[in-house]
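Customer escalation, tier 2.

The customer says the design service returned an amino acid string that "doesn't look like it belongs to this structure." They asked us to rerun it and document both sides in this ticket. The original structure tokens are below, unchanged.
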């Protein structure tokens, strides 16, 4: 069997999202709006298969065919007859559920490949003897021949997502290097084009000269469209001695389905902001225009406090090895009014709390743009995974001048982060009950601060295309050097494009640090309803959770490549290092032996030193993070961040050795089963599923009842069209 790093265990936790009450409270019009937005999100989410690995679309199509012909219970009888044990069949169900849940065969959290935990020849017998294979023998056999080997392969380059020799990616053709990615980013910046909805394909001519195709995601391809601002961009360019060609039409048939559903949703919009928002999203996906998506995002920001909240597009850049290209995601959710009221109080206090952050006023936005901040019960979250909270849009220019929205996903928090005592690792026994009692409430506080005042704080010093600065060059002083500002963002440059590979993790670290720092403020604890001993317990567990998370993060470090595979976890490790460096016994990490005789470890946090030792250390670190970010000082930012992110075996912690202990005792991330909506006559029904691997599979089988075979054909045709592009470096 495969290394446990690369399988999903049979006893993996599976939870169902509960949004029944929030959905029940919607009007019939709101339900229709939510239904069509959900359909758009689910269709768009299929693009993630094409953004993950060469084989993912074929694996999805194969699983889809299998479970459409036989549901998990029916297929089980066939599998047992073919000689599989119950455990082996369960392992296959868990694998299939994992592919659906991650929208591919790489974990969304950690970017590690996972493979079926049963013999390949046994799975082959099940597939080729299945009802689906009897109905369509050539198609099923063809899919298995294409993806069977890759499904199980753990060749070193295929174990993780990455660029060139470091891993597999479909954001870049297999012959691209980090140097190609940097050149392409410089080209995009020079043309004021965003990388968010692009992929990069490289060809090398007989003369050895490279040429690059920058392909935009859109419904339209080469068709002329004189009204589009994109038309002038679709041409060939010479840039720094290389040939670039900008094309469009990536994921076209998938985005066509997204657009059709958004058009239907528009008829049920609650106001003109939502109508104009959807119109611009439609324009963006049709034309391949990020500028249109920005316009839609402006209307989205202005749509304050909607009953049905949503966002859709190429959003987060965590999985692009260069850190600039966005993975498709779409969510639809309903407001949880009780928790949202607490967040409204936090927003009302935000301007005062921002003054508590440890950087000079010149490094804060000129005006705090009061955002929407709501707690939502998720109906649909399509993409590779479901976060606990979101702060969007990610466009720097909008965030600096027009604002953003924060959402906390309440029903996700309720199930994804619940902890069983017997599975609670690396804590002292006396901390465990306290941790279980207060982890949920403390996480609500941390998510609120992280999203609103972490991602929502800080100014970027910019020079626009006309040469004008958004800061006073004469009077603004860098508090780290005592000198005037020496660096800034020039026109076309963004946080992601400048800081590239560390941008996501660095920003997550800054936001997490703001949460830890401000949770010490009595006003914050009061807003969330905590005072006295309870307030102190919330602070302690919040800090303890971060310290423990920093140790757990080692699972997502790859020693062979000296690289991190998950932005949030790298950020938490960095914070652990900062707090360990503070000294005076604030934090200790000690290797031990468990009651089972195997290696173990314990993290300890001295609660009496959080304010006296921890706060000053975090204050110094936070100030440096913000100053380097504000000034666009990439060299300084990398030196600071990569220094703390380095994993070595230096004593006393010996983190490389501790990583083996973390892997030995790791718990797999839960799978989340989401409901479906179905239109019956003029009414929308909510369909819920059991919290199991089989239930998750059924939810996907019923998600595309009308056009499942068509979608499988679309995915395999799109994958085949680019199949020759993924050959790795020689």
């Amino acid at each position: 069997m495969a290394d446990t790093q690369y399988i999903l265990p049979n006893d993996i936790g599976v939870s169902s999202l509960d949004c029944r009450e929030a959905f029940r409270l919607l009007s019939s019009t709101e339900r229709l709006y939510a239904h069509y937005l959900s359909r758009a999100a689910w269709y768009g989410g299929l693009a993630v298969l094409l953004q993950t690995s060469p084989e993912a679309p074929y694996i999805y199509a194969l699983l889809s065919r299998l479970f459409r012909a036989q549901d998990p219970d029916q297929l089980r009888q066939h599998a047992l007859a073919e000689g599989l044990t119950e455990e082996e069949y369960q392992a296959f169900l868990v694998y299939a559920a994992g592919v659906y849940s991650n929208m591919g065969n790489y974990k969304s959290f950690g970017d590690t490949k996972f493979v079926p935990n049963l013999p390949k020849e046994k799975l082959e017998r099940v597939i080729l003897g299945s009802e689906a294979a009897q109905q369509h023998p050539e198609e099923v056999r063809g899919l298995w021949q294409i993806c069977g080997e890759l499904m199980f392969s753990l060749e070193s380059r295929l174990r993780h997502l990455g660029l060139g020799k470091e891993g597999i990616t479909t954001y870049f053709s297999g012959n691209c290097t980090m140097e190609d990615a940097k050149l392409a980013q410089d080209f995009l910046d020079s043309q004021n084009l965003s990388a968010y909805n692009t992929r990069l394909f490289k060809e090398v001519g007989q003369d050895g000269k490279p040429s690059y195709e920058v392909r935009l995601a859109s419904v339209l391809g080469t068709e002329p469209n004189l009204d589009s601002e994109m038309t002038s961009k679709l041409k060939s360019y010479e840039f720094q001695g290389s040939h670039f060609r900008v094309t469009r039409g990536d994921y076209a048939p998938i985005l066509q389905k997204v657009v059709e559903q958004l058009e239907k949703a528009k008829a049920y919009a609650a106001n003109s902001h939502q109508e104009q928002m959807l119109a611009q999203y439609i324009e963006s996906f049709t034309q391949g225009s990020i500028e249109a998506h920005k316009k839609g995002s402006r209307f989205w920001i202005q749509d304050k406090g909607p009953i049905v909240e949503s966002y859709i597009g190429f959003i987060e850049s965590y999985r692009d090895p260069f850190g600039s290209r966005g993975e498709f995601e779409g969510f639809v959710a309903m407001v949880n009014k009780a928790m949202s009221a607490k967040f409204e109080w936090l927003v009302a206090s935000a301007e005062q709390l921002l003054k508590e952050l440890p950087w000079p006023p010149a490094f804060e936005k000129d005006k705090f743009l009061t955002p929407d901040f709501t707690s939502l019960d998720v109906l649909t979250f399509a993409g590779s995974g479901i976060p606990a909270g979101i702060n969007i849009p990610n466009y720097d220019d909008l965030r600096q001048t027009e604002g953003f929205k924060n959402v906390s996903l309440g029903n996700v928090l309720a199930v994804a982060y619940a902890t069983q005592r017997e599975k609670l690792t690396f804590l002292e026994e006396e901390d465990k009950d306290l941790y279980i009692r207060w982890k949920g409430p403390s996480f609500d506080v941390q998510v609120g601060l992280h999203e609103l005042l972490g991602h929502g704080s800080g100014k970027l010093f910019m020079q626009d295309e006309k040469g004008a600065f958004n800061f006073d060059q004469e009077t603004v002083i860098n508090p780290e050097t005592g000198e005037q500002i020496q660096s800034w963002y020039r026109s076309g440059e963004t946080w992601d494009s400048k800081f590239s590979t560390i941008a996501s993790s660095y920003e997550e670290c800054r936001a997490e640090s703001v949460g830890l720092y401000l949770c010490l403020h009595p006003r914050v604890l009061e807003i969330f309803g905590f005072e006295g001993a309870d307030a102190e317990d919330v602070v302690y567990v919040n800090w303890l959770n971060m310290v423990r998370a920093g140790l757990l993060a080692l699972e997502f470090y790859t020693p062979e490549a000296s690289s991190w595979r998950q932005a949030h976890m790298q950020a938490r490790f960095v914070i652990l290092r900062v707090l360990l460096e503070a000294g005076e016994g604030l934090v200790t990490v000690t290797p031990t032996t468990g009651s089972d005789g195997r290696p173990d470890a314990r993290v300890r946090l001295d609660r009496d030193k959080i304010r006296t030792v921890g706060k000053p250390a975090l204050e110094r670190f936070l100030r440096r993070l913000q100053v380097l970010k504000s000034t666009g000082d990439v060299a300084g930012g990398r030196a600071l961040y990569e220094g703390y992110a380095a994993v070595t075996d230096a004593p006393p912690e010996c983190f490389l050795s501790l990583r083996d202990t973390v892997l030995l005792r790791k718990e797999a991330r839960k799978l989340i089963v989401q409901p479906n909506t179905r239109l019956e006559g003029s009414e929308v029904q909510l369909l819920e599923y059991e919290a199991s691997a089989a239930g998750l599979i059924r939810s996907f089988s019923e998600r595309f009842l009308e056009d499942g075979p068509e979608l499988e054909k679309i995915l395999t045709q799109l994958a085949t069209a680019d199949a020759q592009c993924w050959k790795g470096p020689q």
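Tier 2 assessment: The sequence is consistent with the input. The chain has a mean pLDDT of 95. The chain has 27 helices and 17 strands. Sent an explanation to the customer and offered a walkthrough call.
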